[in-house]
Amino acid sequence: MALDISSLNIPSHYGIYIMKDGKGNILYIGKAKNLKNRVRSYFVKNQNYKTQKLVEKIRDIEFVLTDNEEEAFLLESNMIKRYRPPYNIELKDQQRYTYLRITNEEFPRLMVARRTRTGEFLGGGRVYGPFTHGSSKMLSIGLLRKTFKIRICKRLPKEACLEYHLGNCEAPCQFRDAQKQYPEHIAELESILKGKRRLEDFVAKLGEEMKEASSSLQYERAKEIRETLHRLQNLQTRQKMESVHGSDEEYFGIKTQDQTAHIMSFRQTRGVIKDRNTFSFDLVGDNSFSSFLSQYYSSNPVPKFVVTSEMPAEKDILEEIFSRAAGFKVNIMVPAGGKRKEMIQLVMKNIDLLLSKGADPAVVELQEKLKLERVPRTIECFDISNHGADYAVGSMSCLVDGKPSKSGYRKFRIKTVHGRDDFAMINEVVKRRYLRLRQEDSKMPDLILIDGGRGQLNAALGALKTAGVVIPVVSLAKENEEIYHPNLKSPIVLQKNSSALKVLQHARDEAHRFGVAYNRTLRKFSA
């Protein structure tokens, strides 16, 4: 039976997707800017024969999130090399990204460096990259050579060659001044390749050269410069999936939910993130993160650095045991910042995705921002609609996985409050709602949202206490979109483009719309 794609909640995020058959074997690994759009495209009609056969065999799809397209690009390539899925045949031996190498000669040259499958580079010198989306012509290596006056001759000639007369090289083979200036040119080039020097100056210089070339009718050169400017954007995109100077490291993220520890690891070998593994164990007896690491490295190679989201209890003992087994010093660390910290954050993001069982990343983000124990897959939001003293109603919207569930909407005619008292009205409708759910032994929501500020939040908390119900609850004040949390003195302020904030706004707006419509209906029939 083919996979029902509608049953999957696919994240709209950068990442890779891993398609598996009924036995758990990997059929295909792909990358995407938007996982939801890419994966769903496989399940439309009129696919070619090979794609149809692939789709017929798919029984499960896993996702690994990355922070940008370049990371997805590199992780996909590394995992294809590791697992060799049958439907990735065309990609097995292709070099899909480029490294640049500055040789270790007296007057270094700029070359293209390729990485072998074992992670080693061919040729000596200093290597920079990877640079994605291109082959040896990416970055217009010829123009970089010309701009920084880098020689191209394999052996130094006895006299200045044609490149000198064309203005592309200062001929360090011939002139002492050129020999003195050459290291400066190399240093400027390296500063850009390392990302230490801002590209604005270099880009501005190329921009002027492009204008001059265009004004002098050298359109081919102007086009070449324009393409180089476009490709230079790759130098500014940070990625963590691969590093030239990376050591052997393994990253572990751990999260506890319902007395079960969930662990995910990313393994880096020779600077390359090659794989991801997941584990879980019950927190029973002496089971702990420390005991997990001890068992894990009893059957897996020990890296020089074990980078974790939290420090294991027996750190010193573990380091001693691992160092003795590996034959070199092993360090266990919780990173405070930098690339390792970013990598751990990415691992934790993927654990959240795994635990959410495919919930929308916006809802997972909401769990993180509000410090909730579980993903708020069901959110119920309350609003009060007043129109004079005689027309006051309460309304409740319901969102499931970030989307409105109209069958879960509820409306309330205010019964016990007279006059305009929003706090008392919130108290009444919240109390009525959850007293009834408790009496019926019905499923409670994962999060309650109240339209309003601290006062409305306190009114809802009082109602829940009276009803004898414990459910996470926050309020959203419309004026500045501030989120009030019972355990925090100051409100939480999310960025306006935050996906988590948009979920709350959607729930609030739906409750308001539903309440206004109910209020209008009451007034219409009372007229």
Kindly describe this structure.
- Helices cover 38% and strands 21% of the residues.
- Strand 4 and strand 5 form a beta hairpin.
- The chain starts with 14 loop residues before the first strand and ends with a helix.
- It is α+β, with helices and mostly antiparallel strands and 527 residues long.
- The chain has helices at residues 35-41, 49-57, 69-83, 141-147, 162-165, 176-194, 200-215, 219-231, 289-296, 315-326, 338-355, 361-370, 422-440, 454-467, 499-526, and strands at residues 15-20, 26-32, 60-65, 97-102, 110-113, 126-132, 249-257, 260-269, 272-282, 305-308, 331-333, 378-386, 392-400, 403-404, 410-413, 447-451, 473-477, 482-484.
- The model is unreliable at 90-95 and 133-139 (pLDDT under 50).
- The strands form 4 sheets. Strands 12, 13, 14, 15, 16, 17 and 18 form a 7-stranded mixed sheet that branches.
- It has 4 domains: 5-91, GIY-YIG endonuclease (3-Layer(aba) Sandwich); 100-236, no CATH class; 249-355, Nucleotidyltransferase, domain 5 (2-Layer Sandwich), CATH 3.30.420.10; 367-526, UvrC, RNAse H endonuclease domain (Nucleotidyltransferase, domain 5).
